[in-house]
Amino acid sequence: MSAPSISRRRLLQVLAAVPVAASLPGFGAQPASNRLLVLVYLYGGNDAYNTWVPYTNALYREVRPNIAIARDAVLKVTDTHGFHPSLAALMPAWDAKEIALVQGIGYREGTQQHFRDSDTAFTGCAGEEYSTQGWVTRALAAKSHPDCEDAVAFDLLDQRQADPMGPFRGEGLGVVQVYYPTALTASRTLAGCVTDANARGRARLARMPASIPAAPVKTAFPTDPFGAAMRAAVDLAAAAPELPVIHVALNGLDEDKHHSVDCHWNQLEYHGDALKRLADGLAALRSGLKEIGRWDETLVATYDEFGRAPVENEDKGTHHGLATTHFVIGGRVKGGLVGEAPPVVKIFPKIGGPMPTIDTRRLWTTVAERWWNLDASNLFSKRYAPLELLRA
Asked: Helix H segments across the chain?
């Protein structure tokens, strides 16, 4: 027997993250209503140089004799740079000026070690600083509603066994993780397909609706796990317009991050496919959200723990780096280039690379202040200036 449906009003009551009083100093403003953030975690650290390709740079081809993207294949945007051909599905959004490409972003304190730098990516605390709270938790904990979830995550969320909630670490938010998004799109029951949850999330699951309806859209979504997560995100955006955060990880099809963007070897075999799944999924998300009238209320931001080195390694892949490039996408985004692309440099050993010129905490400050309408002066250990990414 299929699960009974519930009223839209009841669904909003259980899923919506209703903003309430503030707690951290400086967090007194009410967040903007119905503003959704979709965080896309490029699990393992993406290669900026083969994503935003310096196709005219002779040194790029010299240090990447096997994995450089052919000049004629690049989707040329400027006289020096263009997108990997696998990102073709994002070109309509780029042409519509709905994509900001944030170049040279990262943490100067990065260690280029997955565990520590993932911790930094989730908490916004680097170097000698540590936190038991994710940066989203610090931003939104005071707004958490006792009867609803605050964040839903698809695929991998965190590597830690203790409090594995990624940017939602700490008990300030109600968080649930659905590792397999196809389980939700097939069963339509969130409680029945949750893989993990924090204490608040588990307590609230008993009050979750019996059924989450499919949004009535014509958009065709990719059938891979990332595409299924994009379909589920549209369904949640339609059913729960006050849900503030959806988190999605881009992983390997076999759940191995080395077969996605963490390309230490055989990069040509995996990286283009990962970027295609990313672009096709995000293009479908944009189309679906436009159909339900939520595109202008949604901000999509990619992030990872670090970038990749500019020099190809002996296994026809790339080692860990520092500065990288990320996408910020949405109907209210000021499209175009932000910052400067990481320069191509010849380094030995073949790990590391140019320092970031834009601190990632500036992006998260932008989300808190300009998207959620919160005072972010105390979000991190010091004040970071927001980026000019959004239209009013």
From this structure: 8-15, 58-63, 91-95, 114-123, 135-140, 181-187, 199-205, 225-239, 267-291, 360-366
3-state class of 73 per DSSP? helix
pLDDT tens digit sequence for 251-285: 999 999 999 999 999 999 999 999 999 999 999 99
Contacts 24+ apart (CB under 8 A), 314-318: 314/350, 315/264, 315/265, 315/266, 316/66, 316/67, 316/265, 316/266, 316/267, 316/268, 317/67, 317/263, 317/264, 317/265, 317/266, 317/267, 318/47, 318/49, 318/67, 318/263, 318/264, 318/267, 318/350
In the chain the domains, ranked by start, together with CATH numbers, are: 26-371 (3.40.720)
Residues 6+ apart with CB under 8 A from 54: 60, 80, 81, 341, 344
pLDDT one-digit tens code per residue, 302-323: 999 999 999 999 999 999 999 9
